[in-house]
Amino acid sequence: MTIHPMIAALRKHKAGVVLIALQIALTLAIVCNAVFIIGQRIQRVDRPTGLKEQDLFLVTNQWVGAPTGDDPASIQKLDSLLREDLVTLRSLPDVASVSPVNSMPLLNSSWNGAVALQPGATLQTIKARTTYFFGDQNFVTTMGLHLIAGRDFNAGDVANKGFRNTSEPNIIIVTKALADQVFPKGNAIGKAIYLDGSNTPSTIVGEVARLQSPSTGSGSNASVWNAVIEPARLDGNFALYAVRAKPGRIQAAMREVAPALYKADPMRVLDDDSVKSFADIRAHAYRADVGMAILMGVICLILLGVTAAGIVGLTSFWVGQRHRQIGVRRALGARKSDILHYFQWENLLIAGGGAVAGVGMAIILNLLLMKYYEMNRLPVPYVLAGVVVVLLLGQCAVFAPARRASNVPPVVATRSA
């Protein structure tokens, strides 16, 4: 198969060739980036939180008429209300464990800060960004975290403080990701770190395998596994309780919560969203990511379908125009396979040119997305896969009209003469 006559034939249909090549290039650029976005969204949705999510739910409580001040009397009154709720929840027949919390992974409500190895840290001496979780001696058990080194909190470690109390804890538990970042050589247990530029050291007594940040945004990716757990009950006029139901009893436990808390103290607000399973929290947190992945998938399918239809239509048009030419070639001894391969090679030339332009367009589009939407750099395998896809798409789309062309009988040349 010689290329020169083929290029000469394509020159007679410059407009159609350029349009199809541009369509292929645009499809390649958009599909590569769209598939990359889908992959990132799926990766984000599938990443484990570090929690044992089954049988876990969250209770959000708001007291009516509770103190709002930061004075010791108000704090102790609030702590008394909180501890009473903990006793009530722990007494429920279908509840295994309970811990007061300030947030949970995927809740999109986080307390963030920084850790350093020296007191009074500045931006230059910060070792890592982190998220803070507060809970009592039941936090690790209730959340279902995997303690891989050191020890858990005990009741004597836990103190209470107001929401605006910025004092630092004497001891903490950290995630492995944070420990490895701050102490790259390992053995973080027993080491002291300083939280948020404090002059008070906090000693690491335990290390958990993983605990994801409450934030699900792309901006949290760099420190998504960095977390510090403080042994503290935070006292405010509202409270969050992480509750672990007994295996298989989560629905029963969730139904027991509101009546029990109202019976203990009716001066509170519990609305329809106050008792929420972690499965519902996960579904809500990633609803936008799942929707985006579906939208990108639909766009890819539409683009590929439109491009395939364009190739079929243009090739069919060219076959119709070349009936006499095809008949002459068949009369001169060209086999059906020669005609079929001719149109396949012709499509490969057009699709190849479009793919080359598409690679450049895909890179430019990715740079724009990185600039305006904090997207990551498009990996080379995605671009190569996109090139293969558009070339295969072209070959599949051209097959039917090329096959019709190969079936043109030699007598057509005589009839058209």
What do you see in this structure?
The two termini are about 25 Å apart. The mean pLDDT is about 90. This protein is α+β, with helices and mostly antiparallel strands. It is elongated. Helix 3 crosses helix 6. It is built from twelve helices and 13 strands.
Keywords:
single chain; 12 helices; elongated; 417 residues; alpha+beta; 5-stranded antiparallel beta sheet; 6-stranded mixed β-barrel
Summarize the structure.
With 417 residues, the chain is of the alpha+beta class. Helix content is 51%, strand content 19%.
Q: Decide which structural class fits the backbone.
A: alpha+beta
Our measurement of the CA-to-CA distance between the termini, rounded to an integer number of angstroms, reads 26 Å
Shape: elongated
Task: Indicate the percent of residues in helices.
Answer: 40-55%
Alpha carbon gyration radius: 32 Å
Question: What is the N-to-C order of secondary-structure elements (H for helix, E for strand)?
Answer: HHEHEEEHEEEHEEEEHEEHHHHHH
Portion in strands: 15-25%
User: Strand tally, please?
Assistant: 13
Largest beta-sheet details: 6 strands, mixed, barrel
Mean pLDDT: 89
What is the oligomeric state here?
single chain
Low-confidence parts lasting 5 or more residues at pLDDT below 50? Answer: none
**Strand order of the biggest β-sheet:** 3-4-10-7-9-8
Instruction: Please report the number of helical segments.
Output: 12
